[in-house]
Amino acid sequence: MSWSIKNKLCGVVTAAHVIEHAHYWEEPIRLLHHASGKSTLLRPADRAIRVDSTADTGVVVFDVGELPMPDSYLQLPPTDKYLKPGVEIGWLGFPAIRGAGLCFFSGRVSAYLSAESTYLVDGVAINGVSGGPAFSCAVGSVQMIGLVSAYIPNRATGEVLPGVAVVRDVSEFHSVSDNFRSMDEAKAEQTPPTEPPQPAPASLEGTTIPPSPGQSA
Fold first, then answer.
1. First CA to last CA across the chain, in angstroms?
2. How are beta strands 29-32 and 9-14 bridged, if at all?
3. Per-residue pLDDT, 149
4. Host domain of residue 27
5. Per-residue pLDDT, 203
6. For residue 160, what is the domain's CATH number?
7. What is the helix (H) or strand (E) element at residue 19, kind and residue range?
8. Sheet architecture: strand order including 47-52
9. Which of 4, 41, 122, 138 is the most buried (most CB within 10 A)?
10. Which residues pair with 11 in a beta bridge?
């Protein structure tokens, strides 16, 4: 996840498939601040959600309250720039592995699909890491390039072989909370709840990346 803060509103960016179910069924969402151990429970009246199911990206806007959020956030690269194949990137998340906490992963960019604003990465995205931030380390700075969306395994021989991770661009949502002066304004721009789409089956054919390809991370 990534965030932006203004007017005491916080926008937490994550994968759409992480929050679509709670948005549709009006279920509470609990956010945990990992470093401090503090958390907040957001019921539908306490939040505004915007999702783009096609890009598998979304944002939860809420009053920051007592959560010790930082004053700044990782910057995005220019919208007309993207990382070249071979560049190493890293990502963070909480894999669904017993006993595992916050974990760091790394891999190299395999390709950038400009039509989908999506990176294919030679690296593993384990279930539970969806919505985790992916970033690159430039000289003297760290830039967030997107978030982990899914993992596409190689099934060409019938068995599951190593594949590629999918990292989505989040520039549309990265500073969304800057646009609102109040929660009422944010809720007025909320995406209407719709039933979450069913995951598409994994495929290595074609050039289009489906909303939640392969296995959800």
1. 13
2. unpaired
3. 94
4. 2-71+172-188
5. 35
6. 2.40.10.10
7. helix 16-25
8. 2-6, 9-14, 57-63, 47-52
9. 4
10. 4, 61
8 A C-beta contact, residue 6 and residue 64: no
Q: The tokens 């596409």 sit on which residue?
A: 152
Structural domain contains residue 33: yes
Instruction: Give the pLDDT confidence score for residue 166 in this predicted structure.
Output: 95
| Confidence at residue 88, expressed as pLDDT on a 0 to 100 scale | 95
Q: What is the pLDDT of residue 6?
A: 59
- Using a 10 angstrom Cβ sphere, with 0-12 exposed, 13-18 middle and 19 or more buried, the burial of residue 190 is middle
Under 8 Å between Cβ of 129 and 93: yes
65 with 137, same domain? Answer: no
Residue 79, both tokens: 């919208």
What letter represents residue 187's amino acid? Answer: K
Query: How many CA atoms lie less than 13 Å away from 45 in the CB half-sphere?
Result: 0
